[in-house]
Amino acid sequence: MDEDRTAGDEDARRDPGPPSGGRDRHETPLERADRNFGELLQELRVTQTGVQILFAFLLTLAFTARFPSLDAVQRATYIATLLLAVLAAALLTAPAALHRALFRRGAKPQMVQMSSRLATAGLSVLALALAGSVLLVVDVTAGRAAGIAAGAGTFAVCVGLWGVLPRLARRSLTRAQEEGTGTPPP
To answer: Which of 25, 73, 131, 132 could form a disulfide with 151 if both were Cys (CB 3.0 to 4.6 A apart)?
Structure first.
């Protein structure tokens, strides 16, 4: 990720960054941006595989023998879910396009910030696409009420694991750092 470095960056003053319980990395802002972008790309690799599998599943549904028997609500759910999966894929791959457009422009910190926002939006849309997929499949196989319950449950699990849990962990870590322990309680 050295492509965004300039000659003056090598002598840049070391910045310890945010408090980390005595384990400061002592990296320059550019080194931090390089590391953060690398970590973000690793996260996106995991989510992109899931989005691709979901999208492929949704594409094949329209060509199954049972698809013509779907009612209007099921078809609308299918179309909305398919479009959400496309949007999630677009949002989660946008950081690669952004990197390509800003390559060697010295904009790595801005690229990390924009890419992080795109990834967050992508995960939000992916949660809706997953919920819609579960809603559709359970609706077709077990009925509308079960489909709605399963879709809502799927959405709640995604929100809990991807939104609430990280916020609770961050709050716990912040509290521990403010108390001077540097590590969250077990």
So the answer is: 131
